[in-house]
Amino acid sequence: MLTREQMAQRVARELRDGYYVNLGIGIPTLVANFVQPGVDVMLQSENGLLGMGAFPTEAELDADMINAGKQTVTARPGAAIFDSAQSFAMIRGGHVDLTVLGAFEVDVDGNIASWMIPGKMVKGMGGAMDLVAGAENIIVVMTHASKSGESKLLDHCTLPLTGANCIRRVLTDLAYLEIENGAFVLKERAPGVSVDEIVSKTAGRLIVPDVVPEMRFQ
Length: 218
Fold this sequence. Notes:
By secondary structure, the protein is of the alpha/beta class. It is built from four helices and 13 strands. The strands form two sheets. Strands 4-3-2-1-5-8-10-11-12-13 form a ten-stranded mixed β-sheet, sandwiched between helices. A three-stranded mixed β-sheet has the order 7-6-9, with no helix packed on it.
C-alpha cells in the first residue's frame, strides 16, 4: 500500500505549470511538499492564502501562517493573503485549475461524500461543497477501504453527498482510477499490490484493462 507521502507524491505529478491548485484538508495538504522542480504552481488555501509553500522547518515556523486545516505552512514568493470571502469568490468563480480533496466515499457516477457520517460529530461542511461545484478538475485522495475493511469505492454512495457527478479521478493507497461511463477504470496499481486485491476491495463496478502498470517512485 502507498503511504500518505507516496499518495501526495503521486498526485503532485498531476500538477501542471501555471495551475492554481486548491489542497483540501488531510492527505491533500502534503502535496505542497512534492511539487516537482520546474513546475510553477500557486497553491490556494480556502482560508485566504494563495501561494502556499511547503510545511515549515522549525526555523521557518510562524504560528499565524496556517492553512484551512489549521496547520502551519509557508508562503512562497509572490503569495497573497486575503479574506475568506475573496477566497471563495475565486473558488466559486471557477478560477481554480485543480482541486485535491479527501473523501469518505466515491461512486461510479462521480458522486462524492466527504463531510459527515451520521451519528458522529459534524464540524460542518467546510468549503468542500463550493470546491466541487466550482471546479471541473478534481482528484480525490483517500484510502481504498475503511478501517473495518469496507470499500469506499461504491456503486452508490451511502453517506450524505457533498457533490453529484463531479469526480473523475481517484487515487487510493492501492490504485489510481478514473471514472468513465458509470464505472471505475483501473489505470495504475500501487507497488506490490495485485489486481486481484484491488478487485476484491472495490465494491463499485470496476473495469480492469489487460495491462495495469505499477506506479513508480524514485
